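fold description:
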Amino acid sequence: MTGLILAVVFLVFIAIVVIKSIALIPQGEAAVIERLGRYTRTVSGGLTLLVPFIDRVRAKIDTRERVVSFPPQAVITQDNLTVAIDIVVTFQINEPERAIYGVDNYIVGVEQISVATLRDVVGGMTLEETLTSREVINRRLRGELDAATTKWGLRISRVELKAIDPPPSIQQSMEKQMKADREKRATILTAEGQREADIKTAEGEKQAKILQAEGEKHAAILNAEAERQAMILRAEGQRAARYLEAQGEARAIQKVNAAIKAAKLTPEVLAYQYLEKLPQIAEGKASKMWVIPSQFTDSLEGFAKQFASKDAEGVFRYEPQSVDEETRDLANSDDVDQWFSTESDPEIAAAVAAANAVANKPVDPDPSELLIGKRREKQPEISAQPETPAQSQHLTADYYPDTNNG
């Protein structure tokens, strides 16, 4: 019986020794091994053999990256305003033995260092800078924490400000300020829009007035050119009319002279015609009294003696001169169909067509170019005007070819 008990005790002892000799460390954890109360090594991820009753596992450390959120901390800004700030710290333990032997509680240490650093950083900023400088605060907190926790075997990978809560009264003031700023920006934008609209409207009116003035200028130029061409044409017509009138009078005088020569009138007939017309001359309203001089018959007698010849009876008789063939043909000619021609001159027709083309042409954006082009088109007409009587006679002869015969 005693032997059985001893065997059981021995088996139990062997089992305890085996258990004490084996340590199973999960993946993502590290175990700090002590031998007789002194640190020997750090093991992680697997089966570890220990010396029974001599080696022991002091602590197991989670080596995964951890995210710790600390409660809101009251921080006073440079402008003496208290704000509540929440911090989120992301860290990882790289040296588990330092985290065990270097600090009592590394979580509390990280929290306290974070709060102290946060108060130091925010204390040098105003509330507005604190609200708009999250990245600066995060970077400074991470640098300070990483430098302070390196001796603890920690690596600070990230620090974030989760929330910055100013006092309610400050929040209301900020809301009012933001509302006022938005209303100010809206008013400024409205004024800017109105100003731009006014500028655009003024520019449009300016352009319209400029275009209207250009159109009026162009119309005035065209009217002046048209009036100038009309005056030139009227002057040409009046000159041609006067020339034709003179030509007609000359033809009429030639015709009368030729008829008189061809009729072989004698002084007796002329005297008879003169005496026959005297009563009609006396019937005029302005004629009060007519006196026939006594020397009138003597004058007729002297005229007859000078141009007449004395016949056998002693009477002076006028013998008309012989009429040549040219005078007889001129007196007997009745072909007057080609004396007056109503056909337009080709040059005048071309000028009128050019003026109509310019009048129907749309308004050009640059009136000066149009004016120059129009002057170039009208220059041949101006140069075609005769400057000497010979040229004037030649031009009239071109207008009315049949007048050259007179």
Remarks:
- The radius of gyration is 68 Å.
- Residues 265-281+298-319 form one domain.
